[in-house]
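call fold(seq) -> tokens
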Amino acid sequence: MHFSSESNIICFKPKKLTDEEIIESNIPNNLKTVIDKTIMINNEYYYSKTINEESLINELIGTYLAKLINLDAVDYKIGNYNDNLYALSKLFYNQQFDYTYVHNYYNKYASANNTSLLKCMFSPFIYIEDSMVELVENKEMINNILKLILLDIKMGQVDRHIFNLLIKINKETKQVDLAPIYDFSYSYVDNLNTYIYENPFIELKENIFSLKAFSLKYPQIKEYLDILLHTNIQDVLNDIEDKNNIKIDNKYIDKYIYKDRQYTRTLKKF
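ret:
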């Protein structure tokens, strides 16, 4: 990744938040571990994570694709401190909501049953068992879960475990929904067989006919599928370059084109 003097890079210096700033940031009491990595820039709060170039590109792609299907996701900016690259995600906490991890709310959750994402991605069929989706009463939340499933498959995302997926509860109405999605770092990985896809709402297994059955049960996925299937990864990368005034190395671009072609084949099976 190449940066020029015009690149939209935020140079910052970490500074411990004051008690007043912690209150102002709306960081929930049950998520206080976020405080140590939170910085304030121009009166806005960001979670700062040191990161390598490829993982940063993944974060930018994830947010870009999420917005295409109207899935709420954090907004990432590129940061630099002591010549180290950082992903800066704007905090989204709002006093109107309580925030917690999925398993804290539902008491039980589905794991991926040690099913390798490699087996899923490159086998002829994937079986999706909705498991915890059945427990969700809010139709909007179900739609957001479906969007997330498709987005993760589109990106070969292998890190959607229970601590990378927050839910928000409206304090007044008690309505539950997904909080903005974050952390797309482990996407487009080279060795998928070494990773487990851990979306707490579903299980992925090999099984014939299952993708079609899933799409019949949730026909609304057709709309999100159509958008993702017709999204050219080269155009996405070009837009990311233009927005951030950066240049992505050809070695990364070639990899994304190759991987996107593979994962898109899986989406076409729905």
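Residues 2-90 form a domain with the Phosphorylase Kinase; domain 1 fold (CATH 3.30.200.120).
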